[in-house]
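Training component of the fellowship. As part of building independent skills, the fellow (R.M.) carried out the full modelling exercise for a liganded target. The chosen ligand was cytidine-5'-monophosphate. The inputs are recorded below so that the supervisory panel can assess the work.
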Amino acid sequence: MEKNTRLILALDVLDSDEAIRISKAVAGHVDAIKVGYPLVLASGLQIIEKLVKYAPIIADFKVADIPNTNRLICEQVFDAGADAVIVQGFTGHDSLEACVELARERKKDIFVVTEMSHPGALDLMQEAGKAIAKMAADQCASGVVAPATRPERVKQIRRIIGEELAIISPGVGAQGGSASDAIMAGTDWVIVGRSLYQSADPAGAAAGIVREIKKVIKDS
Ligand code: C5P
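Fellow's submitted model of the complex:
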C-alpha cells in the first residue's frame, strides 16, 4: 500500500452500487478501501474485485481462529483480490503466523488488531493490546490496527513495534477521534467510515481530511 494521502475509507455500506459510487468518488483521495462483513455479507466476496480498480482493498474480517482455519480464510480473501487482511492477535502466535506466512508467500499484507476503537475495548481487550503489538512485531506482520480514539495508546504501540510496522487507525470522525491527533501520535493511515460514506459529498469530505493530515505533517 503506497503512503500518499494516508487516508483509508471504511466502506461499511450494504449496497454494491452505492459501494461502487462512493469508491469512484473518493478514488485518488484514499490510499486504500477497507471492506468488512457488512458489505461482503450483503453483496458477496466478488465486490472486492469490483472495487480494487479504485484502490487497494483491505479486508477487515478480524480473523480469529485456529491456524489452519485462519489460513483457509486468508487464502479465500487473497484469491478474491484483496491486498491485505485484518486479523485478531488475541488467538495467539500460531494463528497469527499462519496468516503472516501466507501473506508473505502471496506478497500481501496482514494487519493485526491490538485494541479496538470503541469504549467496550477497555473491558477486556486493552489489557492484551501491548502484548499483541509485540507479537505482531515479532512475527513481522505488515502492521497493526490501533485506536485513533486513544492517541496515547497509538504512541505506546508505536514505541513497542518500532518503525518497521505500519499503524492504521480507525475511530476518526463518527467515533470522536481526530485525524491530526492520530497522525501526530504516530499513525501511518487513518481509517474513516461514516464521516465519508454518509457524507453528501464523500470526495469533498475525503479531500478535507487529507488537507488536515498534510497540514499537521507540514506544521510538525
Ligand atoms: O464509521 P467509522 O469511521 O466509525 O468506522 C470505523 C471502521 O473501523 C469500522 O469499519 C470498524 O469496524 C473498524 N474498526 C474499528 N476499530 C478497530 C478495528 C476496526 O472501529 N480496532
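The panel noted the following from the submitted structure. The mean pLDDT is 97. The beta strands are 7-10, 32-36, 57-63, 84-88, 109-113, 143-145, 166-170, 189-192.
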